Amino acid sequence: MGKGKKSSGCGGSFWFFVISVGVASVGIITGTWQIMLIVAVVIAIIGVILFVLYLVVDSKRQKTLLNTPVSNLTPIQYEQYIASYVQKHGFKNVRATRASGDFGADVLCEDADGHRICIQCKHYNKPVGVKAVQEVIAAKEYYKCDRAWVCASNTYTPAACEMAAKTGVELYTVK
C-alpha cells in the first residue's frame, strides 16, 4: 500500500456517464437523436457493467489482503504481528521479548486496568500443543504477570485446551 490516494473505482463509471450524456446531446443538436440516444444508453450500460466488475474484483482482493498477513509470515514476524495487533487494540506498554531465551513469552503488555499480560506466540501449520501452555505459565511467573495468553495461527490440541482451562491461560487464534 503506497501513500497515494486509493481509487474507489467510481471514476471510470463517471466518465462513461459523461460520454453517454455528451453523445445524447450531440444527437439532439444534430437531429439524429434516436441513434445517438441508443449509443448513449449502450455506453452507460457498459459503464455500469465495468463498475460492477470492479466492485467484485476489489472485494475479492480486499479479502485476500486481510487473510494473507499472517499466513505468509515467519514465526518471528508473527510475534511482531501479535505485538502490533494488541497495541492496535488498546493495550499499552507493548514490547516483544528477544527471539531466543525469552522464558516462554514473546510479547509483554498491559491492559487498560494495568494488568500485566505475557503472550506466547505460535505460528504453526498444525494444532498447538500443551507445551505452549506450559511455557506461558512459566513466563507468567518469571515476568510477574497477572494474565497469560497463547496466540496461535492454528487451533489447539485437546490437552492444551484442558491445561489452559485448569490454569487460567487464555487461548486465542489470530489468523
Structure commentary:
This protein is an alpha/beta fold and 175 residues long. The chain folds into 2 domains: 62 residues; 99 residues, Trna Endonuclease, Chain: A, domain 1 (3-Layer(aba) Sandwich). It is built from 5 helices and 5 strands; from the N terminus they run αααβββαβαβ. α1 runs antiparallel to α2 and α4 packs parallel to α5. The radius of gyration is 27 Å and the shape is rod-shaped. It starts with 9 loop residues before the first helix and ends with a strand. The N terminus is likely disordered.
Q: Which stretches are low in confidence, meaning pLDDT under 50 for 5 or more residues running?
A: 1-10, 61-68
What would you say the CATH architecture of the largest domain is? 3-Layer(aba) Sandwich
Q: What's the helix-strand series?
A: HHHEEEHEHE
Mean pLDDT: 80
CATH level-1 class of the largest domain? Alpha Beta
- How many domains? The number is 2
Estimated helix fraction: 55-70%
Number of continuous helical runs: 5
CATH fold-level assignment of the largest domain: Trna Endonuclease, Chain: A, domain 1
Shape: rod-shaped
Strand proportion, as a percent range, falls in 5-15%
Distance between the termini: 20 Å
Oligomer: single chain
| DSSP strand count | 5
Radius of gyration: 27 Å
